Protein: arsenate reductase (glutathione/glutaredoxin)
Amino acid sequence: MSGTTESGPPAITIYHNPRCSTSRKTLDRLRADGIEPTVVKYLEEGWTREQLVTLFADAGVTPAQAARKREALYQELHLAEASGEEILDAMVQHPVLVERPFVVTAKGARLARPIERVDEIL
Structure:
């Protein structure tokens, strides 16, 4: 999902929700380190199943681990009892169900909760 740019440092992408304080703090931290990542506002752009499968594999998390359990929709859709495939389907239909933020670099991907997890891939 992320590679090296031809003219500089490795490309970094943050899957960002501007309304989320953890996502904003992660973006601020990257910028404080002199990194200007590609910012993907996934609530606007949405996800494909393939994107999520790759992202979760690179981050070493399951769909259940990447689900935003505090989201009311998670309860309404009974995702606590759902299979990984069912959770993926729900995430594609409802991007808000994906926990945030995810950060992707050439070294891998991490769900930045806590924010310091990003250090593992910088």
